Records
---
Amino acid sequence: MTPVRVAVTGAAGRISYSLLFRIAAGGLLGPDQPVILQLLDIEPMGKVLQGISLELRDCAFPLLEDVVVTHDADEAFAGADLVFLVGARPRGPGMARKDLLQANAGIFAEQGKALNRAVSKDARILVVGNPVNTNALIAIKNAPDLDPRQFAAMTRLDHNRALSLLAEKCRVPVTDVRRITIWGNHSATQFPDLFHAQVQGQAALERVDRGWYENEFIPVVQHRGENIIELEGQSSAGSAAHAAIEHMRSWVFGTPGGDWVSMAVLSDGSYGICEDIVYSMPVTVAGGAFKIVDDLEINDFCREKLTETERELLQEREAVRALL
Ligand code: NAD
Ligand code: LMR
């Protein structure tokens, strides 16, 4: 079978250390699909990258056909079918994700150009490096020959956090919870929406108290990233790698009947959200392409939250205008 080329940036970093071994073991594309890993990091990380390449080979993964390590983005992206843009500085204690914008924005302008030159023409590209939404917008704008729908930014970790918290509260398995949505920015303004969620087929907001939803659930999901940083001294890595795998699996294999997932994608004006920002939406996937779920009722409470996170994304866009 023809191997799938999977490019990963920031390959010497913490998230990638969880991600790469799962991809090579078949955790991304299944037990029959060979892969070639194309790993990018900055030149000073060359020795670490070499070590990781040796470790990958030392696993003797039957599905791993080759490992390329490089500090040249064009080489890393050459012919890539699936791309994980992880390489970016993480935030530390006391920082907001948007504080990373100046440090990381330039990376996504350069890599957008390299993607435009090098990837397979139907590649799917997932941005994981923060601040994800605006970094994805920068990459999209610097890759004019690619379809913006080939890009998404990751809010699957927020989605999974919401799923797990609701399931725990209702004392049901996570598989009994459906139709969770994360709207907007992967930041503290994101809106975890339970108005359309279902628990065992029943409206989620009939199963939990509205006070718990507004005063505990929403802020816990919005601030989970900084909570992890306070506790671990560094940002989430295992859960982030898992979310990246799940996001890409949904994108490749589709969403199960009747359910949806959250992906931050270039707004097409759906739900009245301003075009030309990357905004997390509920999406279904079929045939490798996502479709925004388009018929949800948005009440006044939701509208206010959708607008607040939209406003923040518009401000982020202004801050990087020169790179778009
Ligand atoms: P890390 O510091 O451990 O690793 C980042 C790696 O990127 C480093 O090896 C670094 O050398 C590399 N890098 C820097 N500039 C690069 C460039 N131009 N090209 C290629 N590689 C480059 O960080 P991490 O914990 O792996 O996190 C990576 C990013 O993911 C951070 O921005 C973090 O905030 C973000 N993140 C996002 C989510 C999410 O839910 N979307 C979750 C967790 C972390
Ligand atoms: C997260 O949500 O855990 C990541 O985006 C890391 C962070 O900075 O919060």
---
Amino acid sequence: MCGIVGYTGTRQAYPIILKGLKRLEYRGYDSSGVALLNDGKLNVYKKKGKVAELEEAMIGKNTDAHIGIGHTRWATHGEPSDRNAHPHLSANGKLSMIHNGIIENYALIKQDLVNKGYHFTSDTDTEVLLNFIEDIQKNNDDCKLEEALRIALKRVSGAYCILLIEQDNPDTIIAARKGSPLVIGIGKGEHFLASDASPIIEYTKEVVYVNDYELAIVKPDELILKNLGNEKITPYITKLDMELAAIEKGGYDHFMIKEIFEQPNTIFDCLRGRLYAKEGNIKMSGVDDNIDQLLNAQRIMIVACGTSWHAGLVAEYIIEELCRIPVEVEYASEFRYRNPIVNKGDVIIAISQSGETADTLVALEKAKENGAFIFGVVNAVGSSIARISNAGAYTHAGPEIGVASTKAFTGQLAVLMMVALDIAKHKGTITTERYLKLLLELEQVPEKVNSILKNAADIKSIAEKYKDASDFLFLGRGYNFPIALEGALKLKEISYIHAEGYPAAEMKHGPIALVDENLPVVFIATHDPYHEKIMSNMQEIKARKGKVISIITEGDLFSKSLSNDYFEIPMADELIAPLLTVVPLQLLSYYVGTAKGIDVDKPRNLAKSVTVE
Ligand code: M6R
């Protein structure tokens, strides 16, 4: 978590840092701060709350500086407060640092420093690392900062992306990364540093993605990259393929609703150049170039977190159905610690919007060490998970800024569907007729999503009717069971209403005890082979006076008659349906959240990219 920004060059640093922090607020927003080097002195300003509160507090302050660093925080060590906000100042006031990550062995280092007489002004692991660096400098004949940092980093465990500035070195930012992302934008006589490219995009499109265990010495006219062994590395410059409009709200009230409404385009972009429905073909180089590896897999493991894990559950059903390969879906956080059996040649599909989720990343590193083949389904281009993967397919959903994942999820489903179809065709486990039908249906998804979005006002009315409920139940079967889980997760994170997702038939094994006249139960009840079964489940809820809200296939009169409220979606094959059924549930959570006055793009306690354990 946490967003970091740095600037060194000829412009005023503060406005660039402030704007960058606003763009990175999705990564954490419980406090923020900046350190500016002006008048030969390091000045640090920090404030609990969102970046807007820092901006307010900065009015009237001297911000005339050409170098600075800024941070927006998602608390790990120490409560959200002014004192725990970054940047921190070292004990002698000569160094300032921001940090994204966790220093796991900070307690031991802190004790050592306390014994030496250091006092700490915050509860953070970051201040410990900073004073550790200061102490190393002191004990090594006032060695150069980069040298002290290198020594320190060899002794710490955990994850970090850090930026450091030094009073006596007024044009240089020293940066390092392990496990938390860092991008450096290359301008003319200036450099920009940030957790992702969004604060950089309007100044330059040339960037360098810093790798783990690399250290950067950044001056206005110079970028030196080194490894921790002090050897120089040639920076690899990438051209950003992103426009500024993609990271702005474009007239919508929130990023979340903008991103929901972008889905016809993002799904189209995801299919483009891969799906050739009329020719009856899918071209995915990540699959085609590695087909032997994929066909020889005895099983596929899918590793992901949160919404991406739900996409994995849908993929499990689809891959087993179409490819007849056994699939297991794992929470990355469990997988990484539970000593799973991973053998050479096993295929792991890693699903991640951000490509930076710490649990997923570490799980993959371990699996890779054991010889597994990693296939990444990632949205953020150039991210850590994309780079650790042996092969993969980007979801091409564009930057997703709202904390709730929406367009990235449908992108994941579209990619995974194509991967399954491509493997099934190569493996011969699908008939030509079925293959062609699914290709045609997949091609129609953007249009069908568009038709759902045209009726968003109907979902808004339903949301207003049920916004005061204290609990919700979401039920689905088959391919729509993971969508029930996703609907519940969306509602929880955006509206703070307790919600549970269940396979509809499981309801009678426990959750049915919750049903009374106050409980809204959302059924995902589109036409599929389990339709009659789910109708029975609806009857069971109705018999207990629960309020039935249903997502149904157009023209399904019987489902309508059983529902208190319903929303119709276009007819679709059961394998394709999740791409459609999830959209009204995204809208439901958005409209409930906004009706309750919640800042849906930045709901409490959450961060977009979970780069800590
Ligand atoms: O970036 P990732 O897809 O790896 O993130 C995984 C989860 O943190 C993420 O899906 C989270 O659950 C979202 N807030 C859900 O909307």
---
Amino acid sequence: MSKSKDKRIKKLKRKRIWPSILGLFLIASVFFVFMLIVLVTSVVDVVDDKITSSYEASSHIVRRHVEPNVENLEQSYEGILTDIALNDEVEAVSIVRAGEEEWSSNGRYPDQSVRLTYMELFNEENGYVDYDIIIEEDEQNVVVKQGDEYSVNKGFLKKIDIKTILSQLDKTNEEKYVPLAALKLWYVFPVEDMEINVLNHIAVYSYDVVLLIFVALMFAALLVIFIIYYIFTIIGLIASQSRVTKVLYTDIVTGGENWLSFVRKGGRLIKRNYGNRNFYAVIHFRMEKYRSFCTCFGVKDGEELLERFYNVLKKQVRRKEAMAHYEQADFALLLKYDEVEELKSRIENIEKLLNNITPNIKLYFSSGVCLVENRSQDIEELFNNAMAATALLDEDAEIRIAFFDIEMKKQQLWERKVEDEMERALKNKEFKVYLQPKYSAKEERMAGAEALVRWVHPVEGFIPPNRFIPIFEKNGFILQLDDYMIEEVARQQAKWIGEGKEVVPISVNVSRAHFTREDLAEHICGLVDRFQIPHDVIELELTESAFFDDKQVLLNTVKKLRDHGFIVSMDDFGAGYSSLNSLKELHIDVLKIDADFFRGADSLERGMKIVSNVIELAKKLEMKIVAEGIESREQVDFLATQNCDLIQGYYFAKPMPIEEFEEKYKEANN
Ligand code: C2E
Ligand code: CA
Ligand code: CA
């Protein structure tokens, strides 16, 4: 598969799902973190409010009962006890004077040693201890645990690791409103030489949490909606992706697998399974004359037939094998085999099964087989080889299975080499003009010649045209080569005319590929006119086959060429599928009778009869006759009696280089 094709398929199949999933996770986690921050700040706010309120209650007791009565504290105790009883938050008050425990509402004091540590620390750092409390051993934390009571530095509350507070919240059942959690804190108020310690009971009740739960639920709901929306988007993406893949690998006509799927699957099978007693063959399987079938029964029926073929073939394909519709009535198969004979009979059996589909119509199939030789072979290349084998099957061959072999491989390599080198060869003038003389039948004088190309390759040496012309005809290079030949012949004629020599018309072959351009006549004029020679020294040989391409272009071009004074001849008349009808419409100057009429011992007599009648017919249509491929004296004599005009063949001369031709011409005309 070409790289760009591969890229295009990959682009179509590219999964855009991962970025979406990643995006989902990313956005969900950002959302989650945001939610957590909001929740935590809410919790901190609630706890902070509670602590502030309990601190204010504590400081209120100190300001109301202790500070006005510093001298006589005894008077305050009752007030303190009443406030404690009225207050939900304050649990106990104790007074320590000069390090001595003096009084406590319920006999409890904060732990002296820890409190002292804290006091010292704060004295050192701040110089003045305002209020506040005690520090834990790590000194960073402002919370200290004394049994089940905690002390917290209010001023430092923001620094408190909220987790520590929450983890230290004690569950308790002591209150009338059962709190969810409770925290006991000592506040310490220095008043003159005393420290007033107030033990607070900070409880978190369920109604405190309701708001938090509400906020959390809101966020959770949003998060769930968001995740569901995203999941649906991703499912949609996956579905559309699998739809693209399905369309990519489905054949429209049969509804089965298509060529692309075959390449992917088959390629993988060969790569993974070839060897270890698994031998594979790639098969190009074709129904012959599908077009005729469609013409008779309609395209719809034709496509239905292909669908049924597909279904039958599908059933014949075993595990680790592959099959697909290629194009028109062509199928691609990748089958395993042990013996070639067994493979052949399997293919024959498939043909039989397919023929059963239409009991009243006999169908014909061809198969080209290319055996896989190693696991690194490219399946498209293998199928191409299989097709090359099918193409070589003779139309009327009895056995319609052909194997791609070494000879074909060689031919393929040769074609590639020719294609690689043809441009360079043309530039380097490796293509040489050879001339084969044409003789008049009666006087046996040289009266014309045909230009035939030869490739003199720097390494391969002399290459005859049948080894490269068919390749050029396939790839279109023949257009350039024929132009080159016309120019070379025109150049040669101009040279001879310039030297005052008598010249004979030289014919050049014009491939049928030229007859697609409507300005062909003008194009040829352009090529020849550069050399300023009369047009009638150039003859253009075209084959009847061009008649079947674009008849109108051919007819117009021939007319224009003759109007411009060129001689036009029909080459190989009678070879292949010829139609006398073409002579009716095509006004040409010369008819070249194909060499085949003079071959074959059995049919020679009939051939001669046809030749003499064709000559008669041509005369009536005012055409000249050239007999090609004449090799014997008898043939020459026969043609002379039949009023044939010119003879071209080995009997008189083979194609030769221009210098040799010049010599021969001099000899013949002296
Ligand atoms: P063609 O145009 O029919 O040319 C006649 C072929 O018959 C030539 O083969 C010639 O060498 C061969 N021939 C002539 N007399 C005899 C004979 O007595 N006995 C036998 N056995 N053969 C004879 P060549 O040169 O090998 O060319 C083969 C074909 O290649 C040509 O057939 C023509 O179709 C094509 N060709 C050659 N040169 C060109 C060209 O420049 N342009 C195009 N388009 N085709 C060319
Ligand atoms: Ca010819
Ligand atoms: Ca010919």
---
Amino acid sequence: MKDSYGRVIDYLRISVTDLCNLRCLYCMPEKGVEKREHKDNLSVEEIEEIVSAAVDLGVTKVRVTGGEPLVRRGILEICRRIGAIPGVEKLCMTTNGVLLKKHAAQLFDAGVTRLNISLDTLDREKYSQLTRMGTLEDVLGGIDEAFRVGFSEIKINTVLMGGVNDDEIRDIAALTKDRNIHVRFIELMPIGECAQWGPERFISNERVLEELPALEEAGVAGVARIYRLPEHRGTVGLISPISSHFCPSCNRIRVTADGRLKPCLHSAEEINLRGLQGEELRHVMSEAIFGKPHRHHLDEAASSSLRHMNEIGG
Ligand code: SAM
Ligand code: SF4
């Protein structure tokens, strides 16, 4: 279906938990978040119902995200149920990869077609500092295991932060050399934990182009501009919410773990989907899609979202 600005909305991102096994500095408070009661999160059945309604409205791609989706109880069943809904063409997951070594084969068997793994640094020490509790080797082992069990490509999400990892652009882009790895550099957005960080941390993705003049343009995919380094197997993508305002090509809606539909990541507007079913659910979702805001205003102020990224899922 189209929104009131003519954008085709065919992509649903659903957060299955706001809990996480990491505490990335820009995303989560150090002490974590208060654990909700299980009943306050969408059940497997509710997730299935919401995804089915979204598919009826034209969604073909679904991303399971978090918090960290791999810490959600019943995550394999959730993936199986979503993957079995007729009309779901792509079932993707965004994960920090820490638990992937253990779960990659089961996720593949459960019907997950694509994995995005968040990795902001290739430096062991820096990784532990940035995530406050993660071990780089776990993620690298998870990537190897995902390829081994049959995933044909992996996307790496790297949030670019001035003075933190902008000295690693070349090394991270080099991950695309020999394997079907696609790196996506994402501009840090002022939301939640990092909303008040200094301006030096918020750098433009143009930095990637300056650092890697050999990058050749290779088209556009959704909200990403795609490039390739000569003789590299994978691609380098730039997702630039701040410097190039991707709202005109936005094709997505989001649902939080407690069942609120967010038509725009950076708006405070939320629509409660809990307790709705069938035609009523479809009606409420279609109204929300139609009313999707035109654009965010991050170039003028911090995000208006009342939630942190771990509740929304990126
Ligand atoms: N835990 C999973 C992970 O890290 O991949 C999924 C949830 S996480 C919130 C999804 C994505 O949002 C990650 O790639 C993360 O780096 C990104 N993210 C979190 N806060 C962000 C911010 N302020 N600006 C840009 N990206 C952000
Ligand atoms: Fe957890 Fe992902 Fe947020 Fe890091 S970015 S704290 S891994 S939810």
